[in-house]
Amino acid sequence: MPLLFRKPLNIVDGKMQYLFDESGRRYLDAFAGIAVVNCGHCHPDVVEPVINQIKRLQHPTVMYLNHAIADFSEALASKLPGDLKVVFFTNSGTEANELALMMAKLYTGCQDIVSIRNGYHGNAAGTMGATGHSLWKFNVVQTGTHHALNPDPYRGVFGSDGEKYARDVQDLIQYGTTGHIAGFICEAIQGVGGMVELAPGYMSAAYDIVKKAGGLFIADEVQSGFARTGNFWGFEAHNVVPDIVTMAKGIGNGFPLGAVVTTPEIAGVLTRRCYFNTFGGNAVATTAGLAVLNVIEKEKLQENASMVGSYLKGKLSQLKEKHEIIGDVRGRGLMLGIELVSDRKLKTPATAETLHIMDQMKELGVLVGKGGYFGNVFRITPPLCFTKEDADYLLWLSYACYFTFEQPKMIDEPTSRCFSIILFS
């Protein structure tokens, strides 16, 4: 697994939006374990019920009834619209997406899947096929997936015209399949692909096309789910109700847990054989899952993600107007991306600058991620307890680090005050 920094970081402790290395140095975490720790590191209202559950019962097997599993299933289903009421638990997002793709094929009797270029859905055989990103695809057999044009408002051929991109889905179905497909899978915001928010109107137009071809619409909410975007689910911003929703990452605040939620009719396909997942839905992980839902509601983390995210995106957009290196600012809530370019007109990826700024920010105590095919997009996905003060600190620090690109150095206090004045004036 590639490391994020030139000097690897050894993290040993965490508390809410902060991480600590082996020397006790504190870092402001703006990555949250890749959009995982939505409630904050070691949140006491997640940790305590998990410890109590471990003391009582760790793994009974899902072949027995258990209140922890049933209570979380019921609470999770209540967060989804329509007839999305049947929950299958897994251990990861890859497993969840694999199961969803299999269910779509079984339900429709078709084998063809349509996904989007630049999307990421996992690293097993089926999900790797659905992934449209060569950096994450090994040389193994991957058949039956058709990759549609990426509706990327910044780099895409049709700009922000979502309906034009959706026509490519129609063309793929019409000319690359029998005219009928098993399903369509997409992220509302492409996380690994560089925080790309789908062009307006795309998802609803693609939904109509997929349904006419007899396919199921699968919403991959592995990164965008659980209040991260300011909506509870990313798809809610697009006025569609999926047939299947997959989720992981933020679902357990760091515990290995994923889920597939679908309708009773679609879920019925798994009764044709024996479907079983040994650890999926174990009592400890589902206890963590229920605790996450409670914390999100109690602490109004969805509202905070919307408020702080809008504030941060607005400030970043102001910086974009001043500095040519910022090609694009995008995303929603606390799932934001900043794409750096060395030439705005040509949109030349500023990969070296991105790595430098990340390293400098780490040295000064702030952690961010990176993504996109060229590795030139900052991924800002902090815990949802992130405050406006945290956002301000991240802003001036990234601004300051950019100005050290030619001569990297630690920034002293007078210099930091100077940057703060420039940034917030």
Describe the structure using short key phrases.
425 residues; alpha/beta; Aspartate Aminotransferase, domain 1; Aspartate Aminotransferase, domain 2; 2 domains; 7-stranded mixed beta sheet; 5-stranded antiparallel beta sheet; 13 helices; disordered C terminus
Overview of this structure, please?
- With 425 residues, this protein is of the alpha/beta class.
- The protein folds into two domains: 11-30 and 301-406, Aspartate Aminotransferase, domain 1 (Alpha-Beta Complex), CATH 3.90.1150; 44-299, 3-Layer(aba) Sandwich (Aspartate Aminotransferase, domain 2).
- Helix content is 37%, strand content 18%.
- The strands form four sheets. A seven-stranded mixed beta sheet has the order 4-12-11-10-7-5-6, sandwiched between helices.
- Strand 8 (189-190) and strand 9 form a beta hairpin.
- The longest helix has 22 residues, at 301-322.
- Mean pLDDT is 92; it is low at 406-425.
- Keywords: Photorespiration, Pyridoxal phosphate.
- It holds the Pfam family Aminotran_3.
- Its EC number is 2.6.1.44.
DSSP strand (E) fraction? 15-25%
What is the domain tally? 2
Helix content estimate: 25-40%
Which class of the largest domain in CATH terms? Alpha Beta
Distance between the termini: 41 Å
Question: Please, what is the CATH homologous superfamily of the largest domain?
Answer: Type I PLP-dependent aspartate aminotransferase-like (Major domain)
Helix count, DSSP H or I runs of 4 or more residues: 13
Radius of gyration: 22 Å
Quick one: how many beta strands? Answer: 18
What name does the CATH topology of the largest domain carry? Aspartate Aminotransferase, domain 2
Which class of secondary structure composition applies to the elements? alpha/beta
**CATH architecture field of the largest domain:** 3-Layer(aba) Sandwich
